[in-house]
Design goal:
The chain is α/β, with parallel strands linked by helices. It has two domains: 3-17 and 134-226, Periplasmic binding protein-like II (D-Maltodextrin-Binding Protein, domain 2); 45-132 and 228-266, D-Maltodextrin-Binding Protein, domain 2, CATH 3.40.190.10. It contains ten helices and 13 strands. The strands form four sheets. Strands 1-10-9-11-8-12 form a six-stranded mixed beta sheet, sandwiched between helices. Strands 5-2-6 form a three-stranded parallel beta sheet. A two-stranded antiparallel sheet has the order 3-4. The longest helix is centred in the C-terminal third of the chain and has 16 residues, at 239-254.
C-alpha cells in the first residue's frame, strides 16, 4: 500500500539543514467599485488571497507596492486598476484557499493562486473565467537516473497538499512510492534540494521556474491534464465582482495587457 506523509510547515533553511546532516472606473455596468462595502470585503480595495511563494505566479517582492509580484499578482493588479480599486495581497495556506475556507471567512474577495478549476472545487467555490492553461510535470536532479514516474518505485515523491499534482501522483505513481505532502512550494522545493524527496510532481510552470533558477535540475516528464486556472470566489458571494473580473479579464486580453504580462513570465 502506498504510504502518505504530510509534512507540516518548516522553513526552507530548516529543510536544507536536515538534508545536510492607478486605475479607471468600473466599466462593466455593475455596482460601483468604490464606496460599496458589499462589493468587496474592504471598500475601495481588491483583497486577494494567495499561497506564496509559488513562482512564477506568486513571488515575494519587496520592490512591489503590495510586497508581491508574479503572473497572478500582476493580472489581479491590472484588473484592480481597471475597477478603480487598490490591490491588497494576503498570504494564506493553499489548502484553506482551494477548499474555500478563507473566502467564506471573508479574509479576501478573490483567490489568485494558480487554482485549477475542478468539479470538486466548484462545489465549494465559484470561479471566474479561465485565464491560464497548465500541465503537470515531474522535476528531478539531473544525475538522479530518474526519467519517468515509473522510476520512482520505492522512492519519495514530493507534492503540495490539496493540489491536482497530489491527485495525479496518487492515481499514477508506483504503488510502493511514498507520497510526501508539503504545505507549499516554499517547503517542497527545498525538500528536493536537500534530498528529502526524490522528485517533485506539480504544475509545469513552477517546475520550469526551478530549472531556470538551478539548471542542475530538469523536468523529465509532462502530463497532459487539460487543466485551467481560474480566480476563486466564495460560493454565491461577490457575484457582481466576479462578473466585473470576467469583463476586465477579457478587456486585458483584448488590449494586449494580458499578453504583455504573460510574455514577461513565460515567453522564455
Amino acid at each position: 500500500m502506498r504510504r502518505h506523509i504530510i509534512v507540516t510547515a518548516v522553513s526552507a533553511a530548516a529543510l536544507l539543514a536536515l538534508g545536510a546532516c492607478s486605475g479607471s472606473s468600473n466599466t462593466s455596468g455593475g455596482s460601483s467599485a468604490s464606496g460599496d462595502a458589499a462589493y468587496t470585503v474592504t471598500s475601495g480595495k481588491l483583497t486577494i488571497c494567495a499561497d506564496i511563494p509559488y513562482p512564477p505566479f506568486e513571488i515575494e517582492d519587496s520592490s512591489a507596492p503590495t510586497g508581491y509580484s508574479g503572473f497572478d499578482i500582476e493580472i489581479a493588479g491590472a484588473i484592480a486598476d481597471k475597477l478603480g480599486l487598490e490591490l491588497v495581497v494576503n498570504d494564506v495556506d493553499f489548502d484553506a484557499l482551494q477548499s474555500g475556507t478563507v473566502l467564506v471567512a471573508g479574509q479576501c474577495d478573490m483567490g489568485t493562486s494558480a487554482i485549477t478549476i475542478t468539479e470538486e472545487r466548484k462545489a465549494n467555490i465559484d470561479f471566474a473565467d479561465p485565464y491560464y492553461d497548465s500541465l503537470q510535470s515531474l522535476l528531478v536532479k539531473k544525475d538522479s537516473g530518474i526519467k519517468t514516474l515509473a522510476d520512482l518505485a520505492g522512492k519519495a515523491i514530493g507534492t503540495q497538499q490539496g493540489t491536482t499534482g497530489l491527485n495525479y501522483a496518487e492515481e499514477n505513481a508506483p504503488a510502493d512510492a511514498t507520497i510526501q505532502q508539503f504545505p507549499s512550494d516554499g517547503e517542497l522545493w527545498p525538500a528536493l534540494q536537500a534530498g528529502l524527496v526524490d522528485a517533485i510532481l506539480q504544475d509545469l510552470p513552477v517546475n520550469v521556474q526551478h530549472v531556470k533558477d538551478d539548471p542542475s535540475y530538469e523536468v523529465v516528464e509532462q502530463y497532459q491534464t487539460d487543466e485551467q486556472y481560474g480566480f476563486a470566489f466564495a460560493k454565491g458571494e461577490h457575484v457582481q465582482l466576479r462578473e466585473d473580473v470576467n469583463t476586465q479579464l477579457a478587456a486585458l486580453k483584448a488590449d494586449g495587457t494580458y499578453q504583455t504580462i504573460y510574455d514577461k513570465y513565460f515567453a522564455a
